[in-house]
Amino acid sequence: MADSIPLNPVRKNSRKTAYYNAGRPASTHKQEAFENEESDYQTLPRARVSQRSRGLGWFLCGGWKVLCCSCCECLLHTCRRKKELKPRTVWLGHPEKCEEKHPKNSIKNQKYNIITFVPGVLYQQFKFFLNLYFLVVACSQFVPSLKIGYLYTYWAPLGFVLAVTMVREAVDEVRRCRRDKEMNSQLYSKLTLRGKVQVKSSDIQVGDLIIVEKNQRIPADMIFLRTSEKTDESVTEPPGFVSHEAGNFTLRDNWNLPNGLSPSAIGDLFSISAYVYAQKPQLDIHSFEGNFTREDCDPPINESLSIENTLWASTVVASGTVIGVVIYTGKEMRSVLNTSQSKNKRNSISQGDDVRGANTENEMGWESRYDSAKVTENVGLLDLELNRLTKALFLAQVVLSVVMVVLQGFLGPWYRNLFRFVVLFSYIIPISLRVNLDMGKSAYGWMIMKDENIPGTVVRTSTIPEELGRLVYLLTDKTGTLTQNEMVFRRLHLGTVSYGTDTMDEIQSHIIQSYAQVSSAQSNGSSASSTPSRKVQMPAPKVRKSVSSRIHEAVKAIALCHNVTPVYESRVNGASTEQEGTEADQDFSDDNRTYQASSPDESVGLTLVNRDLTSLQLKTPAGHILTYYILQIFPFTSESKRMGIIVREEATGDIMFYMKGADVAMASIVQYNDWLEEECGNMAREGLRTLVVAKKSLTEEQYQDFENRYNQAKLSLTDRALKVAAVVESLEREMELLCLTGVEDQLQADVRPTLELLRNAGIKIWMLTGDKLETATCIAKSSHLVSRNQDIHVFKPVSSRSEAHLELNAFRRKHDCALVISGDSLEHEFVELACQCPAVVCCRCSPTQKAQIVRLLQQHTANRTCAIGDGGNDVSMIQAADCGIGIEGKEGKQASLAADFSITQFKHIGRLLMVHGRNSYKRSAALGQFVMHRGMIISTMQAVFSSIFYFASVPLYQGFLMVGYATIYTMFPVFSLVLDQDVKPDMALLYPELYKDLTKGRSLSFKTFLIWVLISIYQGGILMYGALVLFDQEFVHVVAISFTALILTELLMVALTIRTWHWLMVLAQLISLGCYLASLAFLNEYFGIGRVTLGAFLDLTFITTWVFVWKVCLITLVSCLPLYIIKYLKRKFSPPSYSKLSS
């Protein structure tokens, strides 16, 4: 998509990106060009963005916050000018020779320090309107003419909220500080002239020579210099083939590096005069340009350095020991430069509370979010709805205050009375709403992680669990998510003959026969000549017409062209240790051999038994060892989609160039044939992933010419990647096609029933994959992503707008059909039609295109999206979605750490959405509305009281009564709503159609809000008028009667709202009632009318009489009984769908 159609540009930190990318080669990726091309967006149809006029309304509705943030940012940039990053020359083992001062290699994840903690937390709290509103109301009580009640009536709730927030922030800061201290205190071996010295990670400098052991984290960005070999107690200088995974940075393709160092080798490193020239720090982790120069020899040695020579920080050494020279530290490291723009999905009411940089955590569980990283916010839908309702309540509060002043006749200083009424009705907007919702979200997260039916589930973002119950679109990866990412070798096709799983034994017999002929030919040649020749001609591979020789060549190419490293471990007392000993004593048995590779490779007939930096060894079925010297390796990249290797056979001296890759990349490289495209399509329709294998024989002169041009290109400092690629492509011509391999990626457990469950729940599933169209279509059918009775419409590639309209018209004529489309064919005009499909398959999608598809859905629909994946290429998609779910798979933990929720298997998503998503949304909706009801009912009573007594701005309830009403008297029963459930888990999974009602948002809407408003007005009026009518000739008793009836009404309303009782709910009701009855003996002074100085106190003898009891019961009965009757009639004549199923 990004390669052809400009879409909505990615909003990135353009200053930072431009700053670190300045001076880079002009040939950037198309993806980067797309992200920087913002002008094209305005030319798209149906995608024009109308800019909002910046007037007074814009300023009052949030523009002031934008202006303040902009001013603070400009001031911050002025005070902290960024240091210009330049290329550097690093002398080996001599950090003192560095010309410039480099940042300290310490990890700092704290948001605040001792000085900025309190101001920082307060700013995060009061930069939003509601919190600032409560602060203004509380501060107004210091003005005598505006004072309504006791100061703690307003300051105690606000102080409690701030105290909870500060304690939570302090705990997070302490945890971050401990993690930072633990990481900075890790010890590493540093090479000096005196030998090894232990240094802390934070004390490592640019130019230091650091030894990193097996399973140890790389402390800084380094150049891979040497590895130690125990076999001959010497040190070798390897090219250092290292693979890096984006997002995870796990070093998984490292060579077998035995432990131990020779003392003489350490001296050699300091006896030479050498330096490394490194480019300036960049964002891109997949490229590096530098040179290695040694000056103390004649002529000086110059070698080029590339990504294959680097060890990025936070990677882990797979095996052995490596020595590297540090080139970047601290904030200049690649992993740090890539930790910005993390999405923070949080509560809109508590925005700014908690920053979670889960996407920047690595496998060791520590956060890499630096204080320079900016965070973009993504607010939950339920929080947005509640935020709109609180704004409506604020408007109602202002209108009610104006009405009171108008009815009062604008007597006296009316503006002062207006503000007093605003303060008096401030309980309409409950400050406890935020606390209750935050505590409820934490409770939901705890319940999810404690669910035994989905073990291993981790909630990394606890602020949006309700999003799990509102999802309409699920975008899923294929490999590792729907499938197991365990490749099984299924097919070998030679053009005229094909071998499957049932005929693999024939391949084995052909290999045995072929090598038997080679052995006999070699034995005959050695007996006929007394002086054996270095090159012994192998007759079998030279014969191209026989099937046996073709199989032999194909299998040998498969066994040589890969990046797999065998690692041998011996079992000693149940523990595994690396195998030691010389090559002659090496145990090549299958029992103690494991393989390390970034991706599974095919293997049949020949066994890889050993590999080092310069050679690899294969074992034939007869047990003979074949040695091949590695001359060059061209690793696999997402751009080239192929890998190659040049080897020299020890026995014959022949030089062979082997290559394998995707059929799209290899079709133009191999010689003309008439079967490759057809067979690739056939295998893809069977759900197999294909690789094309080819070879080319090279003469000594051809290779020497290539090597000279290749080395010269690698030493270039400008456009190095292009020049190297051009030299390699000069070899990739007219290669001999050997075979086509097919591997099967099996489906995960219970994928089919899970997808059917989600489809029945009304969730539209989009599968985004990088595989070819045929493979994606086959997996969609086998996984039942596309149901049996659904048609499939394949959107053909188009090159013009007229062709696109023809395809659109053809698609419009079909109904209820699944869509299969390539990633670069999606555009804005087409998304509207694609959104109507029950299932969509997007093939040939890059990671950036996956994220763009998520943004397209968010742009063109008002529905919530969920993305699920397991690899580093899914991180951008997961972070772009409203709800991200990561699976801990074979590709590492980068997806699970970047996600909001982490699961271990795809089938767990059914219970996560149907059960926990439903409960979280229903409970939060009920909790939020009930907390607002609790504030509205007491504000209604206050309005009735003021209107009866000549519109006086005098509080009805004083002091602790107002504080206790929202805390100990009603907090526990109201919060117990987080345990309520309308449908049992088994019922929710049995009838997934119930999920469809959640996406309509009927549990929290303006309709339900108005119903609660009417209930509050009715109950508040009944409670206040009833107490005034029944005050028994003494006005002082109205407070005691009305407040007691109010508490009982709230407890009964909680009972009315609950659908499934839990024993903790009953306990919460009893505790609250007991607390209120016990407090009557101590709070008699607060039950007076107006000020305490009026002399009105609670009569304990009166509340113990039957008169008080029957009056309170009568008022409570009148306020609650009609609601119970209405609820009973509604359930009887118009029951909800779930009640029909449960009955």
Which helices and strands appear, and what pairs or packs with what?
Layout lengths: L13 H8 L8 H7 L19 H24 L8 E4 L25 H10 L2 H12 L10 H34 L2 E6 L2 E6 L8 E4 L8 E9 L4 E3 L26 H9 L2 E5 L11 E5 L6 E5 L4 E2 L10 E7 L5 H4 L4 E5 L28 E5 L1 H28 L5 H11 L7 H18 L8 E2 L11 E6 L6 E11 L4 E2 L4 H25 L10 H4 L4 H14 L4 E8 L2 E4 L14 E4 L10 E5 L3 E5 L5 E10 L7 E8 L5 E7 L1 H4 L9 H10 L2 E11 L1 H15 L5 H10 L6 E12 L3 H10 L3 E5 L4 H10 L8 E4 L6 H12 L4 E6 L5 H7 L4 E5 L3 H14 L3 E6 L5 H6 L2 E5 L6 H5 L2 E3 L4 H41 L11 H7 L4 H5 L9 H6 L4 H5 L6 H24 L7 H21 L5 H17 L20 H4 L2 H28 L3 H6 L1
Parallel strand pairs: 12-13, 15-28, 15-32, 28-31, 29-30, 30-31, 32-33, 33-34
Antiparallel strand pairs: 1-7, 2-3, 2-4, 4-11, 5-6, 5-10, 5-11, 7-8, 8-9, 14-34, 16-17, 16-27, 18-19, 18-20, 21-22, 22-23, 23-24, 24-25, 25-26, 26-27
Helix pairs in contact: 4-6, 5-6, 9-10, 9-26, 11-26, 12-14, 16-20, 17-18, 26-31, 26-32, 31-32, 31-35, 32-35
